[in-house]
Amino acid sequence: MELSGEHRFSAPRERVWSLLLDPTILQQCLPGAEELVEVGPEEYEARMKIGVAAIRGTYQGKVKIQDKDEPNSYRMAVEGKGPAGQISGDALMRLEADGDSTIVHWSGKANVRGTLARVGGRVMQPAAKMIVGQFFNCLEGKTNG
Amino acid sequence: MRVPIALHVNGVERQAEVEPRTLLVQYLREDLALTGAHIGCETSQCGACTVLMDGQPVKSCTILAAQADGASITTIEGLAPIGTLHPVQQAFWDEHGVQCGFCTPGMVLSTVALLAGAADPSDETIRHGLEGNICRCTGYHNIVLSVKAAARAAAAGAEAQPVVDRNAALAR
Amino acid sequence: MNPSTFAYERAETLDDAIALLAEHGDSAKLLAGGHSLLPIMKLRLAEPELLIDIGRISELQGIRDDGAEIAIGALTTHQAIADDPMLRERVPLLADTASRVGDRQVRNRGTIGGALAHADAAADYPAAILALEASIVAKGPQGERRIPAGEFFLDFLTTALQPDEILTEVRIAAPPQGHGWSYQKLANQASGYALVGVGVLVVLDNGVCSDIRIGITGAAPVAWRARAVESALRGRTLDANAVNSAAAAAIDGVELLDDLHGSAEYRRRVTQGLTRRAILQAAERAAGTQ
User: Fold this and answer.
1) Which 3 state secondary structure label does DSSP give A106?
2) How many whole angstroms separate alpha carbon C257 and alpha carbon A55?
3) Residue boundaries of the structural domains of chain A
4) Cβ contacts (< 8 Å) between C45 and chain A: which residues?
5) pLDDT at B159 (0 to 100)
6) What is the residue range of C39's domain?
7) pLDDT under 50 in chain A at which residues?
8) Is residue C192 part of a domain?
9) Cβ contact, residue pair A54, C156, below 8 Å
10) Residue in chain C nearest A130 by alpha carbon
11) I need a surface site. Which of B65, B68, C282, C289 has the fewest CB within 10 A?
12) In 3-state terms, chain C is what percent helix, strand and coil (to 5)?
C-alpha cells in the first residue's frame, strides 16, 4: 500500500521540525497512543489504539528515525503488530519552507500481512489517510504552544 | 459470561446457556449436531450456512446464538421427516441441481423461502432470490431448473416422499 | 471463526440502551442486525468489550406515514423496506435501493439504522438518503435531534452521530407524485457491495427539469451529492446530449478511492457512466415513458 499527502503548517520550519520529533508531543498527537517509550537513540516503542469508528485495535509498534537532515527531511521505519495483522513500512517526511509557513510532504509504503492484508484493502487506505490527518491537525494546534 | 437461550429447532424446543460470542451456526453444528448448516466463507457471502429463521433465510454464521433466542429455526435436517425428501430436495435430485453438494443445504432452504413468496418464479426472480448462495462447481444452470421443477411440484400439491434407493430398486 | 470474547446485554427499551451506552462508552458497540458489526468482529478488526443488543426494542421498529413525513424505524430490515407497499409507491428510490443491498439473507437481517450508522463507504443507502434529503433522528442522554442527510456522512466510517447517541429513525418527506427515480449500481460480485452506486430523483414540469438531486456512494471514502451536475441540468430538458455533458461533473471535487477493487480512473468512468444512465432512466420515468 502506498500513501502520500501534504499538510501546511502556519509555523516556521524549525518549529515544525522540533514538534515532529518531540516524543511528548508525539504521544499527545498520535491518535490512540497509550504509551510511547524511548528504547534507544531515535528509537521508540509505542502502544496505540488505532482505527476509525467501529474498526479499531490495539497495536504494538516500533518507530525508528533515520537519515535526519535537520530541518529538511527524515525517514521513519515503522513496524506494528495487532490482532488483525502486521504492518511494516517506511515513510519519508520532507519539510519545505514557504515564507512563514511550512509544507510537510509525506510519502510512505507499507507492507501489510494477515487479515488486514486479506480483507482490509477496502478499509485501510481511507482509514490511514484519516489517521494521518488527525495527527497533523493535532500538531497544527501545538504550533502556537 | 453465559447467556441463556430458548429456541425451537426443527420443531424441538431447545434450551442452552451459550457464550455470547457463540454463532448460531456453531450452536447448531456443535451443540445440536445439525451439521447440514455448512461453514464456508464465514464472511456472510457464500450462503452455505443458510437456515430458516422464523421462515426467512438467514446466514447463521453472522448471527449470534443469543440473537436467535426465541426464534424458530429450520435446518436442512428439519425440512422433511428422516428418510423422506421435501419436494424441493426431490427436485434438486431429479434435475441434478447438485454437484459437490456443499452449497446444497443452503440452496434448498433459500429455494423453500423463495417459493413461499413466488409460486411461479421467472429465471430472473430465481437468480435474484438465490444471489446469497454461491455454488463454486458451478451448477447454477441445473439449480435454476431444479427451482422451476420444485415450483411445478408445489403447484401439483407435492408432499415429502420417502427416499427411493434407486440402486436397490434396479437390483430388484 | 469467532469474534474475541465480549459481554452481552440485551436492552429492552431505548432508554435502557442509552443508559448502557453512556455507562460503557467507547468499549461498547450497539448490535442490531449485526451484518456490519459481526463480520468485522470475526476478522478481529473490532474487539468491543460489550455488545448492547438493541434488536428487540419495539420503539425502533416499523414504518409509519405521518402525512408530511414517512418515518422508518432504525431496526427496519432492508427486506422490509424493499417489500413495503407504501414505500414502493411513495419513495420507490429507497425501496429499490433496499432490494439491491447484499443478498436476500443479508436483507432479512441487516437494518437501515445499522447500515447508516456504520457508514461503510460502499454501502447502498447513502446515495438514496442524500438524493431524498432525508433526516436522521438520533437520541442520546441530551435528548433527541434531527440531522439532515447532507450533514450526516462526514468521512470514511464516520457520521455526525455522537458516541453516546443512538440512531432511532430515518424521516423522509416523500417526493412529489410523478417524480422520476433511478438507482444504478455496479456491485462487487462476491460481496454485493457497491463499487459505485448512483441514486437520482427527477421532477419534470412540462418536460423541463424543475428539480434534480443526485447522491453517489461507493466511489469515494464518503458518499456525496453531485451538485455540479444538478445545477447544470435544473431548468433544462433532460435529453441525452445535455445529460451526457453534465454527467462528467459527477466526480468534481471528489477524491476517488483507488484500491484493489478498482483504480480511481476506473471508478471515475463508472461513476460518470452510471450517473448518465441514472439521470436518463429517472427522466424517462418522470415523463411516464417507462
Assistant:
1) strand
2) 18
3) 2-139
4) 51, 55-57, 84, 115-116, 119-120, 123
5) 84
6) 7-53
7) none
8) yes
9) no
10) C156
11) C289
12) 40, 25, 35
Q: Are B21 and C6 within 8 A, CB to CB?
A: yes
What pLDDT score does A126 carry? 79
C155 inside 8 A of chain A by CB: yes
**Residue extents of the structural domains in chain B:** 3-78, 84-162
Interface list for chain C against chain B, based on CB atoms closer than 8 Å: 1-8, 10, 31, 34-35, 38-39, 42-43, 51, 53, 55, 79, 102-106, 108-109, 190-192
Identify the CATH number of the domain in which residue C214 sits.
3.30.390.50
Q: Name the grid cell of A79.
A: 513496524
φ and ψ at A67, to 5 degrees? 50, 50
Is A52 within 8 Å of C29 when comparing Cβ atoms?
Answer: no
Name the CATH architecture for the domain at A2-139: 2-Layer Sandwich (3.30)
Distance from CA of A71 to the nearest CA of C (A): 31
Tens-binned pLDDT, residue by residue, of chain C (290 aa): 889 999 999 999 999 999 999 999 889 999 999 999 999 899 888 889 999 999 999 999 999 998 889 999 999 999 999 999 999 999 999 999 999 999 999 999 999 999 999 999 899 999 999 999 999 999 999 999 999 999 999 988 899 999 999 999 999 999 999 999 999 999 988 778 999 999 999 999 999 999 999 999 999 999 999 999 999 999 999 999 999 999 999 999 999 998 878 899 999 999 999 999 999 999 999 998 65
Q: Which residues pair with A58 in a beta bridge?
A: A49
Beta strands per DSSP E along C164-207: 166-172, 180-187, 194-205
Element (H, E) at A132: helix A121-142
pTM for the model: 0.90
Give the domain-ending residue among C111, C145, C172: C172
As a whole number of Å, the CA-based R_g of chain C is 19
Which of A83, A125, A126 is opposite residue C44, by nearest beta carbon? A83
Its CATH class, for the domain covering B84-162, is mainly alpha
| Regions of chain B short of the pLDDT cut 50 | none
pLDDT attached to residue A26: 85
CA closest to C258 among chain A residues? A125
Q: What ipTM did this prediction achieve?
A: 0.93
CATH placement of domain B3-78: 3.10.20.30
Name the neighbours of B, counting chains with at least 3 Cβ pairs within 8 A. Answer: C
C-alpha cell belonging to residue A6: 501534504
